[in-house]
């Protein structure tokens, strides 16, 4: 192959962007979801189960929907008590939603879980009042 023109043999100076790689040596999906565990009490979990069933969604889908819906609205989320519990619901949020939760975490000086809990709890109260 040494007969080829120097133009063909020339290597580009620009290096291709290296894909994101996790600890196992695999590429990280660009549409990766972030799983956030939100502690709830028995009553809140019952409401999530009920409202999710009425919406024909899983509990995780319903919880995720509440968090995403809350972040798309321009509302203030009141402070609420945060008690870590063995009862949890999951929210699987996309990258954009996660970034918004990170911004709220910084504004409220708390953890991601506490920020998600605050948004979730307020939105759940609105949904419960809408039903009742």
Q: Based on helices, strands and strand pairing, what is the structural class?
A: mainly alpha
Using DSSP, what is the number of strands?
A: 2
Quaternary class: single chain
List the secondary-structure elements in sequence, H or E.
HEHHEHH
* Cα Rg: 22 Å
Shape: elongated
How big a fraction of the residues is strand? 5-15%
Task: Return the average pLDDT rounded to an integer.
Answer: 85
Strand order of the largest sheet: 1-2
> Strand count, sense and closure of the main sheet?
2 strands, antiparallel
Alpha carbon gap, first and last residue? 78 Å
User: Which residue ranges are poorly predicted, with pLDDT under 50 across at least 5 consecutive positions?
Assistant: none
The number of distinct helices, counting runs of at least 4 residues, comes to 5
The share of residues in helices is 40-55%
Structure description:
By secondary structure, this protein is mainly alpha-helical. The protein is 49% helix and 9% strand. The chain has 5 helices and 2 strands; from the N terminus they run αβααβαα. Strands 1-2 form a two-stranded antiparallel ribbon. The longest helix has 20 residues. The chain is elongated, with a radius of gyration of 22 Å. The model has no long low-confidence stretch (mean pLDDT 85).
């Amino acid at each position: 192959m040494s007969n080829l023109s120097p133009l063909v043999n020339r290597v580009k100076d620009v290096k291709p962007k290296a894909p994101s790689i996790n600890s196992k040596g695999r590429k990280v999906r660009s549409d990766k979801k972030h799983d956030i565990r939100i502690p709830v009490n028995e009553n809140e979990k019952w409401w999530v189960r009920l409202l999710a069933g009425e919406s024909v969604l899983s509990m995780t889908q319903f919880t995720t929907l509440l968090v995403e819906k809350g972040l798309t609205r321009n509302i203030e989320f009141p402070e609420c008590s945060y008690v870590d519990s063995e009862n949890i619901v999951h929210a699987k949020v996309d990258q954009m939603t996660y970034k918004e939760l990170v911004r709220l975490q910084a504004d409220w000086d708390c953890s991601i879980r506490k920020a998600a809990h605050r948004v979730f709890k307020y939105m759940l109260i609105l949904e419960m009042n809408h039903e009742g």
